Amino acid sequence: MNAPLALTHKFVDSVPDMLEEDVLYVSIRFRTVIHKCCCGCGNQVVTPLSPSDWKLTFDGRSISLCPSIGNWKFPCQSHYWIKCNKVEWVRFTEEIDTEESLQTQAAPELVSSEGPSKPKADVGQRLLQSMQRAWLKIREKLTKN
Ligand SMILES: [Zn+2]
Q1: How far apart are the first and last CA of the chain?
Q2: Which of 85, 94, 102, 131 has fewest C-beta within 10 Å?
Q3: Which structural domain, as residue segments, surrounds residue 116?
Q4: Structural domains counted in the chain
Q5: How far is the CA of 27 from the centre of ligand 1 (A)?
C-alpha cells in the first residue's frame, strides 16, 4: 500500500458506467473528479471541485488535487494526496487517526445521514448518483432516436 502509483487522467463530460483503475475522471461540466480508490479496494471516490471542497491543478500534463483524499467511510481508510498524477500515501499521525476514528464511531452513517455534521463524501456520492442518472437518461434518448 506504500508503493508509488502512477495515475492517468481523462477529461470527460459524464461519468462512465465502469471506472477504470488508476484513472482520474475529470468533469469540468459537473465540477467533479471521480476515481477508484487508489488502494485497489474498488470504491468510487468522488471529489467535488469548489472553493470549499477540492481544488484541481492541471499543469498541461498532469493533475493534482488539493487537499488530500481521506477515504474514512471506506473499510480501507486510505488517505493519500494526488500530486502530478502520482499517489502520495499519507502516514496517519496519531492526532488525525484518533480524531477521525472517534468521529466515525460517534456518527455512524445510518444514524445521522442528514444534519449539519454530515460528511462531505455523502454529498459527493449523491452528486455521483445524479450524474449517473442524468447520463442514463441521455443515453436512453440517444438509443431511442
Ligand atoms: Zn480503498
Answers
A1: 47
A2: 94
A3: 5-144
A4: 1
A5: 22
Question: If you search the block for the grid coordinates 487537499, which residue do you land on?
Answer: 67
Ligand 1 center–CA 28 separation, angstroms: 24
pTM here is 0.62
Residue 51 alpha carbon to ligand 1 centre in Å? 25
Query: Where is average pLDDT lowest: 47-51, 65-69, 73-77?
Result: 73-77
Q: Which residues fall inside 5 Å of ion ligand 1, going by CB?
A: 37, 39, 41, 76, 78
26 CB-near residues (< 8 Å, 6+ apart): 9, 10, 11, 12, 33, 56, 58, 63
Write the pLDDT tens digit of every residue in 34-47.
999 999 999 999 99
Cβ neighbors of 35 (< 8 A, separation 6 or more) are: 7, 19, 22, 23, 24, 25, 44, 45
Query: How many angstroms separate the CA atoms of 42 and 118, rounded?
Result: 23
Cβ pair 64, 88 in contact under 8 A: no
